[in-house]
Amino acid sequence: MSTKQTRDKSDLLNDLPPYIYGTTRLGDQNLPFEERVGVGRAAMEGTNWFHTSHSYGNALQVLRAAFDQDDTRMPKLIVKIGWKNIEELRDVVHKHLIALRLENLELGQLCLSESLAEEYASGGACYEEFARLKQQGLVNRFVLEVFPWTSDVALKALHGGYPEGIVDGYIFYLNPLQRFASNELWDELVERDEPMIAMRTVAGGNIHRLRDVPGYAWKSYLQERAAEVTPIFERSGIESWTEFCVRFAHSFPLVRATVGATSKIENLREFVSAAENIQPLPTDIIEEIVKLHYRWSDELDMKAEHWTM
Ligand SMILES: NC(=O)c1ccc[n+]([C@@H]2O[C@H](COP(=O)([O-])OP(=O)(O)OC[C@H]3O[C@@H](n4cnc5c(N)ncnc54)[C@H](OP(=O)(O)O)[C@@H]3O)[C@@H](O)[C@H]2O)c1
């Protein structure tokens, strides 16, 4: 039985900027270290929040070097923490604190699997541990990462009311080609006014290249989806895919921020300028893409082998 929350959540995560710089490309060791530090520094001028993880190559080293060059512009961080049990999660928190030379993490992205996911779904001891991490000043706030195949964990926990007061929102792929919360979870999050952070702003690149250039899309389903969305994008008359995508994410009132990555200054500028004075997309365009999201979720996302999308 669902115990719907009626609490006003408008104050949660409302300090996030509309665009958050995603740092995966800072860990690409095919690019010179100093060049990546330069991109990191430019991103520090463009936004005051970054998303990162120790799993992104040597991105943490690049970030620390960028912070050392200008510690007056230190961004706040969303950091991936997890996975199988609370000991591992604490260890991951400390790894980040040490590598980044920080005293605390602003926003921990809970990436839960195995017994930790089970505890989360059933209201187990993990919630006390999350509260302890806050009391100890190690992690200030939490959001829960969801995928189609982990959405039931989030749903069960929400129905039990367990995350209330501990988890401030939900983070998942949300862009014109992906909505990685199940249909049921999406509806529940919308009904409960849960704050959201949208990941993968441009769905991995330029829409025409995603559609037309073999191998450019990470997976073939993205190429197929790009073929469906291209006519909608073209009909909008918006010239830049980045602008379309930033406006797309912010057409959902619960979205506080969109996280997009780049290793190029010119593409960073596009993200940053698209995040100024954002106008939501026209309603008919949003409705059309939302319909696709519901269909794709049933047709593929919920049936796919876990972690293959
Ligand atoms: N589970 C998770 O927590 C998770 C999973 C995925 C992503 N993320 C976060 O979200 C961030 C973004 O995800 P993402 O990198 O997968 O997706 P994304 O931001 O949609 O796509 C980034 C890719 O798009 C390219 N790009 C950016 N602007 C472009 C433009 N104007 N024209 C053409 N190409 C452009 C970038 O290439 P260039 O470098 O050449 O610009 C980069 O390869 C990540 O950095 C990470 O922080 C988190």
Explained architecture:
The structure is a single chain. The longest helix has 19 residues. Strand 6 and strand 7 form a beta hairpin. The protein is α/β, with parallel strands linked by helices. It contains twelve helices and nine strands. Helix content is 45%, strand content 17%. The chain is globular. Bound molecules: NADP nicotinamide-adenine-dinucleotide phosphate. NADP nicotinamide-adenine-dinucleotide phosphate (NAP) binds next to strand 9 and helix 11.
Give the topology:
Layout: E1 19-22, H1 33-46, E2 49-52, H2 59-69, E3 76-83, H3 86-100, E4 105-112, H4 114-121, H5 126-135, E5 139-145, H6 151-160, E6 167-175, E7 178-179, H7 183-191, E8 196-199, H8 207-212, H9 220-236, H10 241-249, E9 255-261, H11 265-274, H12 283-301
Parallel strand pairs: 1-2, 1-9, 2-3, 3-4, 4-5, 5-6, 6-8, 8-9
Antiparallel strand pairs: 6-7
Bound molecules: NADP nicotinamide-adenine-dinucleotide phosphate.
Residues 22-25, 51, 80, 145, 199-206, 242, 259-264, 267, 270 line the site of NADP nicotinamide-adenine-dinucleotide phosphate (NAP).
Report the C-alpha radius of gyration, rounded.
Answer: 19 Å
| Helicity, as a percent range | 40-55%
Strand order of the largest sheet: 1-2-3-4-5-6-8-9
Describe the largest sheet: 8 strands, parallel, barrel
Distance between the ends: 31 Å
Mean pLDDT level: 97
Overall strand count = 9
Global shape: globular
Q: Which structural category do the helix and sheet elements fall into?
A: alpha/beta
Unreliable parts: none
β content, as a range? 15-25%
